[in-house]
Amino acid sequence: MSGAPLVKQILEAALLAAGGPLTLDHLLGLFGDEERPTRDSLLGILSSLERDYQDRGIELAQVAGGYRVQVRREMAPWVVRLWEEKPPRYSRALLETLALVAYRQPITRGEIEDIRGVAVSTNIVKTLTEREWIRVVGHRDVPGRPALYATTRKFLDYFGLRSLNDLPTLREIRDPEFLRDELDLDDPAASEDARIEVRVEVASREVVDAENAGEGSSHES
How many helices and strands, by DSSP H and E, does the chain display? Predict the structure, then answer.
């Protein structure tokens, strides 16, 4: 190997070819024992690659599952036109359920229903489970032993989060300018993925209502 420039090219090629995020271990595994860079060296090269993309339509992002090269959000209104098939649209009930799982996990279906005041349909739980956005992580030690739901790494990856700590705090969500700062809500060309993210953030206001009712939340700051 001829040093850092070639390593950088290999990392870039792998990140572009991968179908999802790559961890540091995945990236280190691309190299043989004699040519493998150190972990610190690899992090430095990734930082350099991130800087290379600063003025381009793509970016190097770190999410829960590792590193990935992705289209910048600002480019989404144009890039989305490549696909004729429209992304799926999700009901407010589904997004409210997802937001409650994200902010109050682990949480049972019954607890979600108590906060929302309406039943959670089996189809909602099935859809969120099939998308691998939520999973059963245990059972509440009460009669009937209801399942406890929590979000998954795929949930974090989909919404571009490194961890649950990257979720907007309840104080941020209370700010009426929060969503408008996040996205241009007046832009009809905004991508559906971006709109899904906005709707999830709006849905999380349901958590704020629960907080105001004295329910409490670990994401308040």
Answer: 12, 5
Cis peptide before 106 (omega within 30 of 0): yes
Q: ∠ CA(52), CA(54), CA(59), 5° rounding?
A: 90
Q: What are phi and psi of 154, to 5 degrees?
A: -65, -35
Task: For residues 160 and 192, state if they share a domain.
Answer: yes
Instruction: For 160, list phi and psi in degrees, rounded to 5.
Output: 70, 35
pTM exceeds 0.85, yes or no: no
DSSP string across 107-173: EEHHHHHHHHSSPPPHHHHHHHHHTTSEEEEEE-SSTT-PEEEEE-HHHHHHTT-SSGGGSPPHHHH
63, containing H or E segment: strand 58-63
pLDDT digits (tens, 9 = 90+) for 41-63: 999 999 999 999 999 999 999 99
- Is it the case that residue 24 has pLDDT exceeding 90? yes
The pLDDT value given to residue 57: 92
Split into its structural domains, the chain has a count of 2
Q: Is position 81 within any domain? A: no
CATH code for the domain of 37: 1.10.10.10
Confidence at residue 75, expressed as pLDDT on a 0 to 100 scale: 87
